[in-house]
Specification:
The protein is α/β, with parallel strands linked by helices. The chain is 32% helix and 20% strand. It has one domain: LigB-like (Protocatechuate 4,5-dioxygenase, Chain B, 3-Layer(aba) Sandwich), CATH 3.40.830.10. The protein has an 8-stranded mixed sheet with strand order 6-3-7-2-8-1-10-9, sandwiched between helices. The longest helix is centred in the first third of the chain and has 20 residues, at 23-42. The structure holds fe (ii) ion.
Length: 272
């Protein structure tokens, strides 16, 4: 079954802690996210495949794979008490049988992906779940790309991984909702950049997606992504590879939330 739904969403956690001063944009953001949430429900997915990045929940500087997939059978828990919101913690089943199939097929195709048999989930899943599937009633399949620690994979490589994933998923029976997480521009803890959002770069990225030219995101170099605070775009680029890189946007909203020092975006893609 081809992918039945695909979207990408920022995951900076401040947005679930406090409302920003720009309430008008916040309300628009929430409204678009609710529409995308409804769209996802309407296509009745069997599971959610997250393309995301670890934030030292599972890996650290001494050992971080370029790409990893969660294959364990135990449920995935997201403990939101770390962010002072225990009431929005989630526990979801694992889509382990499809994960093991993807692992096998990717290895057969020469993608040396790491198998994660237990996973600690972080805000990179919590925030998208909060906006897009708060019911937490679907199994989860997480794929982690190393956006965080040098040396990072090249954007073209993330796109190719996505292409393999899209091709493999077409032959599987499951109805898969894909959620890419992260972005847009931000510099966590970087001196001199802590309060900066690169709106020009963010709008260039949204513009490419608006034009149905998501494949062009893979033409950035990794140095260009890092220069513009777009390290987490690797997850979005992988999603573009899954979709073939030419999908039209179905819904989207972008705004630079300066209270959160992150360019926030939520986009969904027309499927089929
Ligand atoms: Fe992040």
């Amino acid at each position: 079954m081809p992918i039945v739904s695909a979207c990408c969403i920022s995951h900076a956690p401040q947005i679930i802690l406090d409302k920003p001063s720009n309430l008008e944009d916040f309300n628009k953001y929430v409204s678009v996210s609710r529409s995308i949430r409804d769209d996802i429900s309407k296509v009745r997915p069997d599971l959610i495949l997250f393309v995301t990045n670890d934030h030292f929940d599972n890996f650290f500087l001494n050992n971080i794979p370029s790409i990893a997939i969660g294959v364990g059978e135990q449920p995935y828990s997201v403990d939101a008490s770390r962010w002072g919101r225990p009431e929005i913690s989630y526990k979801c089943e694992s889509a382990s049988s499809l994960a093991l199939k993807l692992l096998e097929e990717l290895l057969n195709r020469g993608v040396d992906i790491t198998a994660l048999h237990s996973v600690t989930m972080g805000m990179d899943v919590l925030v998208p779940m909060y906006f897009l599937r708060p019911e937490a009633d679907l199994p989860i399949l997480p794929i982690y790309i190393n956006d965080y620690v040098n040396p990072r994979p090249r954007p073209q490589r993330a796109y190719e991984w996505g292409k393999h994933l899209g091709e493999i998923l077409k032959d599987q029976p499951e109805r898969v909702a894909v959620i890419g997480t992260g972005g847009l521009s931000h510099w966590t803890g970087v001196p001199g950049k802590a309060n900066y959002i690169d709106e020009k770069s963010d709008r260039e990225i949204i513009g490419m997606l608006e034009s149905g030219e998501g494949f062009r995101l893979a033409e950035y170099t990794i140095d260009e992504l890092l220069e513009h605070g777009q390290h987490e775009l690797l997850n979005w680029i992988c999603v573009q590879g899954m979709l073939g890189g030419k999908s039209e946007l179905a819904r989207y909203f972008y705004t630079p939330f300066y209270d959160y020092v992150t360019g926030h975006a939520i986009v969904s893609f027309a499927i089929g």
